[in-house]
């Protein structure tokens, strides 16, 4: 069993199951195609996969934790959602080139994977990405800076794509207002 699996199995064993889609998807779901193949990568409880399936896409959801994949599978069966749930280490087994119309990644960052993610998208394919930044005003998200985005990093990691939506407010202005701590990107290949 990998360290990642051990860590995340323990977390999901103790977390209430309540799948919630991320903001990058809920706010921009009108940009989704009407049909196509979609992947919720490192899906956790699979809130993004649920939204994608309800939008009529052909959805897979992959995570290294068999505990959470079983929870998502049970939820999908109970709610008649056709989600292909798979326990999969996405670093060891990234998505195949040219296999996806939509790719959603939320709160997962491994820079080694970015080239594979880019090549997994078909021409015109959409990437929805959201995760924590180093420049944050609250003590939320990972402590290890390897898992935090530097300034504008999503833009440089996916610089060959067309940016359709981007938000990152950093530490500017009134910290009581706005959307902080994270960056989100919707980009088209
Ligand atoms: C912070 S959670 C985010 C889950 C989900 N995307 C969300 O937005 O709620 C990170 C997820 O990455 C998964 N993960 C970590 N390493 C992984 C790997 N190598 N392959 C696949 N999933 C992995 C964990 O099991 C965990 O579910």
UniProtKB/TrEMBL annotation:
A GO term for molecular function: methyltransferase activity
Record-level GO BP terms: methylation
Keyword set includes Endoplasmic reticulum: no
Pfam families according to UniProt: Methyltransf_25
Boundaries of every Methyltransferase domain copy: 39-125
Gene3D superfamilies registered for this protein in UniProt: Vaccinia Virus protein VP39
Keywords of this entry: Methyltransferase, S-adenosyl-L-methionine, Transferase
InterPro entries: Methyltransf_25, SAM-dependent_MTases_sf
Protein name (database record): Methyltransferase domain-containing protein
Organism listed in the record: marine sediment metagenome
């Amino acid at each position: 069993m990998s360290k990642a699996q051990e860590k995340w199995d323990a977390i999901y064993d103790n977390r209430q199951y309540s799948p919630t889609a991320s903001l990058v998807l809920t706010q921009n779901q009108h940009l989704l195609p009407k049909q196509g193949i979609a992947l919720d990568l490192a899906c956790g409880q699979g809130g993004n996969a649920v939204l994608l399936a309800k939008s009529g896409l052909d959805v897979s959801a992959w995570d290294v934790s068999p505990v959470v994949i079983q929870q998502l599978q049970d939820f999908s069966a109970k709610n008649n959602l056709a989600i292909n749930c798979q326990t999969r280490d996405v670093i060891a087994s990234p998505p195949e080139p040219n296999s996806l119309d939509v790719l959603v990644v939320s709160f997962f960052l491994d820079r080694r994977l970015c080239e594979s993610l880019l090549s997994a998208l078909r021409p015109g394919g959409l990437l929805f990405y959201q995760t924590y930044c180093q420049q944050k005003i609250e003590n939320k998200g990972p402590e290890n800076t390897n898992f935090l985005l530097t300034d504008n990093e999503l833009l440089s990691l996916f610089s060959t794509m067309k940016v359709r939506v981007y938000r990152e407010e950093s530490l500017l202005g009134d910290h009581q207002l706005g959307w902080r701590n994270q960056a989100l990107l919707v980009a088209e290949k």
